Amino acid sequence: MSSATVGPSRRRLPSQARSRERVERILDAAARLVVSNGVDGLTTRSIAETAGLPVASLYQYFADKEAVLLALCERDMAEMDDQVATDLAALTDLTIATMVETAMRAFVAVYHRRPAFMQIWMRGRANPAIYDYGRHHNRRIAANLLAFGVDAGLLGTDRYGDEEMTAIAELAVEVGDSAFQLAFEHDPRGDEFLISQAIALVSGYLERITSGR
């Protein structure tokens, strides 16, 4: 993720309730169109029409359709972060396996609520901003899960140093992300067998890494 420098998209941030409502209408309309017509079929005019707004209103907040897609990714990834945090906080049986499964199932839950996301993430990455933001998000997930695992006593740096553990966490997240792309490639609900295999793959890798502690 080249994106230690990547932050929120450069759209105008709405400060009034009416503006925030319009932005949500735009994003919801774009998400519906992605599900029905795909990423390639999306246009600013179709988004505005579906949202019930003039095209000029859309351009008040977004420069083009790529900016809308990036904003959708940002919104959905923020929802994923919240879901992971909520589900991990509710865990009572803390192991590497339960931590990994809880986190990855949290992502699946959001994919089901936000079916446009995986299409955008798989097919919209020709947009460098989407690609960079996604990689930045993966790094953030890795850092958060590593911190959670260390605090829970599941992961530590007695065998590997801090930099190595960071690399291990990032690799685990990237492997899970790639496996989920395959699982959701043809089925918006995901192939349950591939989802389960992805969870087992990441869990097994981290359990092997920590087995000598």
UniProtKB/TrEMBL annotation:
<dbReference type="Pfam" id="PF17918">
    <property type="entry name" value="TetR_C_15"/>
</dbReference>
<dbReference type="InterPro" id="IPR001647">
    <property type="entry name" value="HTH_TetR"/>
</dbReference>
<dbReference type="InterPro" id="IPR041669">
    <property type="entry name" value="TetR_C_15"/>
</dbReference>
<keyword id="KW-0804">Transcription</keyword>
<keyword id="KW-0805">Transcription regulation</keyword>
<feature type="DNA-binding region" description="H-T-H motif">
    <location>
        <begin position="43"/>
        <end position="62"/>
    </location>
</feature>
<keyword id="KW-0238">DNA-binding</keyword>
<dbReference type="Pfam" id="PF00440">
    <property type="entry name" value="TetR_N"/>
</dbReference>
<feature type="domain" description="HTH tetR-type">
    <location>
        <begin position="20"/>
        <end position="80"/>
    </location>
</feature>
<dbReference type="InterPro" id="IPR050109">
    <property type="entry name" value="HTH-type_TetR-like_transc_reg"/>
</dbReference>
<dbReference type="InterPro" id="IPR009057">
    <property type="entry name" value="Homeodomain-like_sf"/>
</dbReference>
<protein>
    <recommendedName>
        <fullName>HTH tetR-type domain-containing protein</fullName>
    </recommendedName>
</protein>
